[in-house]
Specification:
heterodimer; A: 349 residues; alpha+beta; 6-stranded mixed beta sheet; globular; B: 283 residues; mainly alpha
Chain lengths: 349, 283
């Protein structure tokens, strides 16, 4: 007999609507212990509402939230084994750094020795050991972020929720905090779920990415699956740069508007073909493309071109020595491996 | 301070110096003067202060108690109202504040006379009580009592408590309240440990405002207090007007002012001690 542990977090049919407006359509999601899960999507796609439903701040209109097999759908945030790092941090301005971190433990009536010890450890984890007695308004944005993180982690949540945790930080600090978050996740081996609109951040941190668009889950997978094998047009377009070409499938063969055809089983009708820029090469034979722009990026060369069908194409060449050979307005032949392209049936809209 | 700062500060500073600070200082000096056949005489005597302490000591304590009661009631009611406006009324919060401001245009005497007609012997309240059969004779205690004075003062001063408390509550972010819940705080714990400590300056300002205005009032007790609800201000007025005893009036005014400030200072210190010893802070 095999014993199945229930997943750490299970969302089944979880949905939220405000009157007739649907904010989050029914979502099914399993998150396992140790997962670092990103909910990625443009603003207004319902990702924050989803996170707040997991935390208990928003009551779902339908569906269930289960943590370790226990139904917590009807419990408020104060009763859930989850803790949240808020986008605006929500630190208590009248308390010191250490008092902020100790707040939840003090409410649990822990012994002063335990509170002091766990507070010290949590501050050590975010590298703020020396800042315990500081006032909140004497900290920088990055330090406040760390206090918010320590305050949530000290509670030893089963799931740590982070709402756009790095959005308020500048670029350099954001990269530093990404590294910190990865390190902390490794050190404590917890389960993190965070919301972001930045695909770079999602890829840098998460081992699982949930891509959302207008309240729907578009795709769930590892960063490489989402990047290399997007299952919908939206994912292909939103996650990274991509070239999307129109084509028609007829009797198991797709013919591109831009020229060229290849075997591809499926039902007849219009399709879209997606290719990532680094998978396209300049070759001797292929589709002709007129070069419209060349940008030298240091490690690579970004070439934009226009296909005979009028569709734009963008490619990255890692061999920068070809820069001299590529001239604006000239026609080049481009091609790619069939295994690197994704073919998606166009949805009748 | 550079020159342009001095330039901008000068007018207000000048006005305050010449029509507030100097007259007040002069009035204070007068409390050590004496009066002979209705004429003020420069002097250095403590007669007026002695008179204040011996004759009006009890009334001063009573006046402070009325001020405390009005201030405390206004602060509590004001907090409840401002809390509801900030957290429960959604987008109507600011409109409720506008409505609160408008009540300040209602006029002070109008409110006192309104209470006169509500609490009077043939007033609204007595007629309602008689109509309900709860009493046969009109209740005389309703008007011309300490209770009537405090009710009218609270009615008049409430906006002065609501506005600073609401302003303080507006700086309490939703995120701090959500964070408290997330860390396991009950609504009561959130109120005591997160909201109240963040607005304590606003609460104290509201209390100080209402307390000082109530303790210094003389019109409300004159019209609604009868004999049992008199306050010190009424007697200050008599000393200055009918008795023409400016030193006595001055000593009484300053005596009341100093006792008020002393009381506020004591409350502020006790508050700080209470905070350290009784929690509100999480150590």
């Amino acid at each position: 007999m095999e014993f199945h542990r229930p997943p750490l977090l299970l969302l089944s049919g979880l949905a939220k609507s405000y009157g007739a407006v649907s904010a989050v359509e029914p979502i099914n999601l399993e998150v396992e212990r140790g997962d670092f899960c990103a909910i990625l999507g443009p603003s207004g796609c319902g990702k924050s509402t989803l996170l707040r439903m997991i935390a208990g701040f928003v009551a779902p209109s339908a569906g269930r939230v289960e943590i370790e097999g226990m139904d917590v759908t009807r419990l408020g945030p104060e009763k859930r084994p989850t803790n949240m790092v808020f986008q605006s941090y929500g630190l208590f301005p009248h308390l010191t750094v250490a008092e902020n971190v100790a707040f939840g433990l003090a409410l649990q009536k822990r012994s002063p020795a335990e509170i002091a010890e766990r507070t010290r450890k949590a501050l050590g984890l975010v590298r703020l050991e020396e800042f315990g007695e500081r006032a909140i308004d004497k900290l920088s944005g990055g330090q406040q972020q760390r206090v918010a993180l320590a305050r949530a982690l000290v509670m030893r949540p089963k799931v740590l929720l982070l709402d756009e945790p790095l959005a308020a930080l500048d670029l350099k600090l954001r990269h530093q905090m990404q590294e910190e978050l990865r390190r902390i996740h490794r050190e404590i081996g917890g389960t993190f779920i965070f919301v972001t609109h930045d695909q770079g951040e999602a890829f840098a941190l998460a081992n699982r990415v949930v891509v959302m668009n207008s309240g729907r889950v578009e795709q769930i997978g590892s960063p490489s699956e989402v990047y290399l094998a997007p299952t919908t047009m939206f994912v292909a377009d939103f996650v990274g740069e991509t070239t999307i070409l129109a084509g028609v499938r007829h009797q198991g063969r797709v013919t591109l508007k831009a020229g060229g055809s290849f075997a591809n089983p499926g039902k007849d009708g219009p399709v879209r073909v997606m290719i990532r820029p680094e998978k396209i090469q300049i070759t001797n034979i292929g589709i002709s493309a007129v070069v419209t722009d060349v940008v030298f990026l240091g490690a690579s060369l970004k070439i934009s071109a226009c296909l005979p069908s009028g569709e734009p194409l963008s490619m990255h060449a890692s061999d920068t020595s070809i820069a001299n050979r590529i001239k604006l307005g000239e026609t080049q032949q481009v091609s790619w491996n069939e295994s690197d392209q994704r073919v998606i049936d166009e949805q009748p809209s | 301070m550079n020159r342009s700062e001095a330039f901008f500060l000068a007018p207000a500073f000048g006005i305050l110096t010449f029509i507030f600070a100097l007259p007040v200082a002069l009035l204070f000096v007068i409390s050590f003067w004496s009066v002979k056949s209705y004429r003020l005489r420069p002097d250095f005597t403590f007669v007026a202060w002695q008179h204040f302490i011996v004759e009006y000591g009890g009334l001063t304590v009573y006046t402070l108690l009325v001020g405390l009661a009005a201030g405390a009631l206004c602060t509590v009611l004001g907090f409840v109202f401002a809390y509801a406006a900030r957290f429960k009324a959604g987008s109507y919060g600011d409109r409720l504040m506008l409505a609160t401001l408008i009540t300040l245009f209602g006029g002070y005497l109008v409110k006192i006379y309104a209470w006169k007609s509500i609490l009077g012997a043939d007033g609204l309240l007595n007629q309602a009580l008689i109509g309900l059969g709860l009493t046969r004779e009109p209740l005389a205690v309703l008007i011309y009592s300490r209770g009537a004075v405090i009710i009218a003062l609270v009615h008049f001063l409430l906006p002065f408590a609501i506005l600073p408390i609401y302003a303080a509550l507006r700086t309490v972010t939703d995120a701090t309240i959500e964070a408290a819940r997330d860390l396991g705080a009950t609504p009561h714990q959130t109120l005591v440990r997160v909201i109240l400590p963040q607005v304590k300056a606003g609460l104290f300002a509201a209390f100080a405002f209402c307390f000082l205005l109530a303790a210094g009032d003389y019109v409300t007790p004159m019209l609604l207090g009868g004999t049992s609800g008199s306050m010190l201000g009424q007697f200050v007025l008599i000393e200055f007007s009918t008795r023409f005893n400016w030193p006595a009036g001055s000593a009484m005014s300053f005596g009341l002012l100093f006792s008020c400030l002393l009381l506020l200072a004591l409350l502020s210190v006790t508050g700080r001690f209470a905070q350290v010893f009784l929690g509100g802070r999480v150590k």
